[in-house]
Design goal:
One of its GO terms (biological process) is methylation. Helix content is 35%, strand content 25%. It is built from 13 helices and 15 strands.
């Protein structure tokens, strides 16, 4: 089978896939930590951007893609309540029944009934939507195809079961969408990398679904010319198991997370293909600063060391180039909005795409 199919099974097979089984994925007891688990500062900043869009839309809803533990939902709704800019509904698109149950428990425990009652869950994208779509570390978990550029031509790397274990197998790349996507990419021979037709399709679907509002996605990755740089000639595929990272997706199937970095140029192209306008692209650091993370820090006095020092340490992880600040990017596209987005007021790097 091709690798995209293998990755889909390994992550999402009912009852067996990584996101469908019952083990803890997120946080200190899981396999990795995301920005919402690090600090509520992240969700408060995202909420400020969401509030601006909701105000211009004149209402509307929030749709969160793959809400993980539910922590971002709690933080965004709490901040929107403080800003008096609550959405009509807060919808979560979650394909994992296990994660949905975890989200429901956290939301019921951490939000007052008036806010928890605004949250509902979807199994598929709605046909139309007005408001804000949020996605944090969603695209990196969408299945990818593996393509090898060689002196003999283009090959797709797939997976076979041999002698009781999974193994790699390459086949010449056949005519079709994957060949069309791979052919224009200019790399030297003996280069292996990822192409996510599914992520591109998701972004195009989001753009077509959106009537008015914005889609804001935060993830790790690069513009295309950096994504396919010779320094990444073995691709970006990574696996996460008990806070350890490695590059072998064929071990621990169903027990480990499998991810690939995001080609943000492809994301921008897919959004435009769906009829949306690209509204911003910058580092996570710049996005959070634009959305007021330093203002949130100033709410706590440095003289109160017990409260301030942990908050400052959390901000450091979110902002530092050595942590999440530069590898993670924010990208936004939208329809029907006249005002520039707050999160991209400074440091917008759309020109690099």
């Amino acid at each position: 089978m091709n690798f995209a199919r293998y990755m889909e099974f390994a992550l999402y097979a009912p009852g067996l896939g990584y996101y469908s089984a019952g083990s803890v994925k997120l946080g200190e007891d899981g396999d990795f930590v995301t920005a919402p688990e690090i600090s509520s500062l992240f969700g408060r900043c995202v909420a400020r951007q969401a509030a601006q869009v909701l105000a211009e839309v004149g209402g509307g809803s929030v749709l969160e893609l793959g809400a993980g533990s539910g922590k971002l939902t709690v933080d965004v709704l709490s901040e929107l309540d403080r800003l008096e800019q609550l959405p009509e509904r807060y919808c979560i698109l979650e394909v994992s029944g296990d994660l949905r149950a975890r989200q429901q428990r956290l939301i019921q425990a951490d939000l007052p009934p008036a806010l928890a009652g605004r949250v509902s869950w979807f199994d598929a994208l709605p046909e139309t939507f007005a408001g804000v779509v949020l996605g944090n570390e969603v695209l990196d978990a969408v299945p990818v195809h593996l393509v090898a550029w060689t002196n003999e031509g283009l090959f797709e790397r797939g997976v076979e079961f041999e002698d009781g274990r999974f193994a790699w197998r390459d086949q010449p790349l056949a005519e079709g969408p994957l060949l069309e996507a791979a052919s224009p990419i200019d790399v030297l021979p003996e280069h292996l990398s990822e192409i996510s037709l599914a992520a591109n399709g998701l972004v195009t679907s989001l753009a077509r679904m959106l009537e008015k509002g914005a889609v804001i996605l935060v993830d790790y990755g690069f513009p295309r010319r950096e994504f396919y740089h010779p320094h990444r000639a073995q691709g970006t595929l990574m696996c996460h198991y008990r806070h350890q990272s490695h590059d072998d997706p064929l071990i621990y199937p169903g027990l480990q997370d499998i991810t690939a970095h995001v080609d943000f140029t492809a994301v921008a192209e897919a959004a435009i293909d769906g009829g949306a306008s690209l509204m911003g692209y910058c580092s996570q650091t710049q996005f959070l600063i634009n959305c007021g993370i330093t203002n949130f820090l100033s709410e706590v006095s440095p003289s109160d060391a017990a409260a301030y020092l942990p908050l400052a340490a959390q901000a450091q992880k979110l902002l530092s180039p050595a942590e999440m600040g530069e590898l993670f990017k924010a990208i936004a596209f939208g329809k029907g909005l006249k005002q520039p987005l707050l999160g991209f007021a400074g440091g917008d790097k759309r020109h690099t795409l």
